[in-house]
Amino acid sequence: MIIGIPKEIKNNESRVGMTPGGVFELTKKKHSVFIQSTAGEGSGFPDKLYTEVGAVIVDSIEEVYAKSDMIVKVKEPIAYEYPLIKSNQLLFTYFHFASSQTLTEAMIKSNSVCIAYETVEDEDGTLPLLTPMSEVAGRMAIQQGAKYLEKPIKGRGVLLGGVPGVPPGKVLILGAGVVGVQAAKMAAGLGAHVTIMDINMKRLRYVNDVMPSHVTTEFSSEYNIRKHIQTHDLVVGGVLVKGGKAPKLITRDMLKLMRPGTVVVDVAVDQGGCFETTKATTHEDPIYIIDDVVHYCVANMPGAVPYTSTLALTNVTLPYVLKLANTGWEAACEADATLAKGLNIVHGEIVYDGIAEAFA
Q1: Pairing of β 193-198 and β 170-174
Q2: 206: helix, coil or strand?
Q3: Which of 57, 132, 209, 230 is the most exposed place for a label (fewest CB within 10 A)?
Q4: Confidence class of residue 270 from pLDDT cuts 50, 70 and 90?
Q5: What is the pLDDT of residues 300-334, one digit of tens each?
Q6: Is 116 labelled as part of a ligand binding site?
Q7: Same-fold call for 2-120+305-358 versus 131-303
Q8: Annotation-wise, does 309 bind a ligand?
Q9: Annotated binding residue 268
Q10: Would you say 178 is a known binding-site residue?
Q11: What is the pLDDT of residues 15-43, one digit of tens each?
């Protein structure tokens, strides 16, 4: 099969669809790999490393799409790429269709086959291709939240870890999934007082067992959320509805309950966000302020640490890329139920319930 790896052109997205090590495994199996010039440089992988393992460097994104049977990316195609996608072409990337009707309609029109990393699902319900980026985003949520709590950036002027004689900052985390647990781990490591909320008691019991005593768990309800946002300095939204839109757990009127300079970080922004006031931002212009509350809603948070993120992503996507390349998407999905759940749009038809429900 001919695999194409275009350069990501979303704002400040420096990750690349595959490392040189991943490409080596493909060319070893006699597959052809075309990669756009400088596609890997942002992640620390110059063109030379790709040519050394058998990839062919091409100058333009148009060439990559034109030559390839399968496109391996990181982020969803943007408007410039829509007309480049060929009928029957296989696209393997993060799509997050439920957050964009425009993207969904464009992929339906393209007559391509769209397999979304974020809905590939194991038998136990885990999402193996979403997990590493959720781990990165959960940890970064605290790193960024701590920064934007600083007064020069309009935050409350709170040091999350506190100092002797001064209590630590308070972090409220909505969702005890991968994002929430990683965020709690980072916040606890800084010495912050952490409250993590979820409606899944099994997850809360797990968190209670593995986290230190200054991480407390509480059942998530609107009443409890309204209570805690009045006293917490940083609020992290880490809820996930597989393939669907995130629920709005913090509404516009709740912002007035927060103290001026409170920071909210919405990691669910790719799925429409779990705050009513969420709007996607970029690393170039990451924050905005509503009712004196600082919002950080960058839609590709792991893109800020592309070396780490690209390695982590290729670790989990490569086995599936090899299956798709070796046998074609139909045989690969028939043989692997986990991969089959990644099918979102096939030849103009939505085949994933969460997307159909999102747009009625």
Answers
A1: parallel
A2: helix
A3: 209
A4: confident
A5: 899 999 999 999 999 999 999 999 999 999 999 99
A6: no
A7: yes
A8: no
A9: yes
A10: no
A11: 999 999 999 999 999 999 999 999 999 99
Please tell me the CATH superfamily of domain 2-120+305-358, with its number: NAD(P)-binding Rossmann-like Domain (3.40.50.720)
Q: If we measure between CA atoms, which residue out of 89, 83, 86, 131 comes closest to residue 114?
A: 89
Annotated catalytic residues are 96, 270
Closest to 211 (Cα-Cα) out of 175, 187, 236, 235: 187
User: Hey, what amino acid is at 207?
Assistant: V
Burial of 286 from C-beta contacts in 10 A (0-12 / 13-18 / 19+): buried
Distance separating alpha carbons of residues 76 and 240, to the nearest angstrom: 18
Beta-carbon contacts of residue 249 (< 8 Å; ≥ 6 apart)? 174, 220, 222, 225, 237, 239, 274, 275
Residue ranges of the domains in the chain?
A: 2-120+305-358, 131-303
Per-residue HEC secondary structure of 221-254 comes to: CHHHHHHHCCCCCEEEECCCCCCCCCCCCECHHH
Domain 131-303: CATH superfamily is NAD(P)-binding Rossmann-like Domain (3.40.50.720)
Q: Is 33 annotated as a binding residue?
A: no
Tokens 């968190």 sit at which residue? 207
